[in-house]
Amino acid sequence: MKGQIGEVPYFVLAYRPSDEPNVAGEHRRLVTRLRTEGIEVCDIDLWELATELWSETGQWEQILAQETALPKDMFGEAVGNVISPREHLSPRIARIVEGQQPRPGVVLLSNVGRLYPLVRAHTVLNTLQPLLADLPVVLVFPGTYRQSPTQGSSLVLFDRLTDDDYYRAFDLLELENS
């Protein structure tokens, strides 16, 4: 799972959103298979991690109770600040990885789609790079990872919402087929 020389070992494992009901089972099988082959996996569910961060504020229940009373943008800002990839989410991911013994051979990130629009997939990957540049990271992504030499690359969440350009990750399925 190594990228090209000078490239970070980041990969996108995209799947059709219509396959969502089957993804959890396939995800478990992938983790089991990797571990069976001797590859230690740090498996992180981004939704669960965000929920932990929100709960740690001590105000999560209060925020949820005010959800209908607050303007949508104000509510989004309140919950989004707590899981900001740069300040909170990515540093927490790095601490989880660093605390895992033995050191993982790969980091698997899932459920990024559940955090939309508060967190964007490309932001998570960009903010993780200085923290986990030497470790393969696989983002399990509900949508398409479009790569074009002329137009750049983009993550298309749920095959409908085009995220900002992200050009550093490799398409895991494309590598497997080449």
Characteristic key phrases:
disordered N terminus; 178 residues; alpha/beta
In short:
The protein is of the alpha/beta class and 178 residues long.
> How far apart lie the N and C ends?
13 Å
Which range best describes the helical content: under 10%, 10-25%, 25-40%, 40-55%, 55-70% or over 70%?
Answer: 40-55%
> Order of SSEs, N→C?
EHEHHHHEHEEEEH
Integer-rounded radius of gyration: 17 Å
Structural class by secondary-structure content: alpha/beta
Shape: globular
Uncertain residue segments: 1-6
Write up this protein.
With 178 residues, the chain is an alpha/beta fold. It has helices spanning 20-36, 46-56, 60-66, 72-82, 85-99, 121-128, 172-177; strands spanning 10-15, 41-45, 106-110, 137-148, 152-157, 161-165, 170-171. Strands 1, 2, 3, 4, 5, 6 and 7 form a 7-stranded mixed beta sheet that branches. Strand 5 and strand 6 form a beta hairpin. Helix 2 packs across helix 5 (85-99) and helix 5 (85-99) packs across helix 6. The radius of gyration is 17 Å and the shape is globular.
